[in-house]
Design a protein that fits this description.
With about 300 residues, the protein is an alpha/beta fold. The protein is about 35% helix and about 30% strand. The protein has two domains: about 1-220, Rossmann fold, CATH 3.40.50; about 225-290, 2-Layer Sandwich (Alpha-Beta Plaits), CATH 3.30.70. α4 crosses α5 (about 135-145).
């Protein structure tokens, strides 16, 4: 559905994208992960035909984004991180305006507007002035707008940016529903937990280069190990922490709620309980720590931050 081959974008002497190659299959929810300035927005803007690559090629639904930009725009819905809205308009009028811009008229336009209002749970706000909408509601309105022409592919740049936790949950639920409807979605975000919950594939981007591209589970497997444990004692967690920090098999100890997150050197996990008992401490629980998408990002990018 999306093919990217050797894509490079230069701004002066700086490469915002450096020989990027990716493939997004139909029905994928594909996440772009990387720190600020990694090139995520640049990549999405090139696919949306609003920015030209310096070299390389990209296609959407078999159409080259440079040679056939008009055809590409008919099959994509592009939602940038920050988008302007006409605050003086009401929600319904705003959507009708854009439906007309997409070439929808008469009954088709009314049906499209009603359909996206229902899908995004905005039907009860159809007569509300856009200026009165919360940030979360405006994000939903932005999604409703790009869905009017029923695009095959959605290009979403930080759709949960600036939202409160409740609004983020609602946006995630909407994105899951769009994937169930068969949309192919390319989404960027610095909120790694959101992408772990949403995406089946990810690309980790650092300084314009793709460090990893593939399945989320496969990324976790690459960094999974038995070297991190969650340990809880019955009493004196600080004494337990001090006792473990002086052990030669322990690389680091960090407090995590009521437990200690203990990173050990190879084979050291079996010695944790013995060391605590030797200090007169009683072990309440001990388990291997789950690998998170943040763990995968930090390890695969050598410690970079999203």
């Amino acid at each position: 559905m999306i093919e990217i081959r050797g894509l490079t974008r230069l701004f002066g002497l700086r490469a915002a994208l450096d020989n990027v190659t990716l493939a997004v299959e139909p029905g994928d929810m594909y996440g772009l992960i990387g720190p600020n300035g990694a090139g995520k927005t640049t990549l999405i803007r090139i696919l949306a035909t609003v920015l030209k690559a310096s070299s390389g090629a990209a296609s959407v639904d078999g159409k080259d984004v440079r040679a056939h930009s008009a055809s590409v725009r008919r099959v994509i819905g592009y939602m940038p991180d920050f988008f302007g809205v006409y605050e003086e308009l009401r929600v319904r009028h705003y959507l009708e305006f854009f439906a007309s811009a997409y070439g929808l008229e008469g009954q088709k336009r009314r049906a499209a507007v009603e359909g996206v209002l229902q899908l995004t749970d905005m039907a009860e706000r159809r007569e509300a002035a856009i200026a009165t909408l919360s940030r979360g509601m405006q994000q939903r309105l932005g999604l409703a707008r790009v869905l009017l022409h029923d695009p095959k592919v959605l290009l979403l740049d930080e759709p949960a940016s600036g939202l409160d936790p409740r609004a983020r949950i609602e946006i995630r639920a909407l994105l899951k529903e769009l994937r169930r409807m068969g949309k192919t979605i390319l989404i960027s975000s610095h909120i790694l937990a959101d992408l772990a919950d949403l995406c089946n594939k990810i690309a980790l981007i650092e300084q314009g280069k793709v460090i990893y591209a593939g399945g989320v589970k496969e990324a976790m497997a690459q960094v999974a190990s038995e070297d991190t444990w969650l340990v809880e004692v019955f009493e004196e967690p600080e004494r337990a922490r001090t006792a473990l920090e002086k052990q030669p098999f322990v690389a680091s100890v960090a407090a995590e709620d009521e437990r200690l997150r203990v990173k050990v050197r190879e084979g050291g996990g079996n010695a944790i309980a013995t060391a605590l008992v030797a200090e007169g401490l009683r072990l309440r629980s001990m388990s291997m720590a789950d690998v998170t998408l943040e763990d995968a990002f930090l390890k695969l990018t050598g410690g970079g931050r999203a």
